[in-house]
Amino acid sequence: MATVIDVFADIVCPFTHVGLRRFVSRRRDSGRDDVRLRILAWPLEIVNGAPLDADFVAEEIDQLRQTVASDLFSGFRPDVFPRSSLPALALASAASAVGIDVGEQVGLELRDQLFEKGEDLCDHDILAGVAERYGVPFGDSAQERERVLVEYVDGTHRGVKGSPHYFTPHGDFFCPALDISRDAAGHLHIQADPGSFDDFIDACFDLPLQPLGR
Description:
By secondary structure, this protein is an alpha+beta fold. It has helices at about 15-30, 45-50, 55-65, 85-100, 100-115, 125-135, 140-155, 195-205; strands spanning about 5-10, 35-40, 165-170, 170-175, 180, 190.
């Protein structure tokens, strides 16, 4: 039986893209295909009261590429950054309704479309193409968007801090792959957090946590 890790995240969050890619890579290297991700909606435009700004996200991506993710974000284009993530989140939710594996695959694919291929996730043809490739019935209907809100409300009840926030059989982890801060002047600083990420992976794979300071 598969172990299911719930992760609340927004598709337009670059930190989530890094974290999911790192998780999938570690899972593959560890031969642990029995651990699957259920990617749930944490719509930042609802949390913050406004969609994410493309220039703000571009700053985060610039720092990520300089410090921890030079292999990612090769196709990111601020000029086509989606004005809303709700349509893509609705597709991701519809995919999860088909099955957990389909939901994971579509969640990863949508982030690749945005960050690696430079596609606008508000473009109906782009979303329809992803839906067709993975066999997901999708029309971006009010009912489909309502599922996004249901997932968001569930996240608030579970104490989600932000995107991404993971819930494992041995505790929850907020953005475990990265150490993110701003200095007194407001400059963004991002570093890898290997200790926290290893603890997260151990919790996902049902391994005993290592002592602090390893």
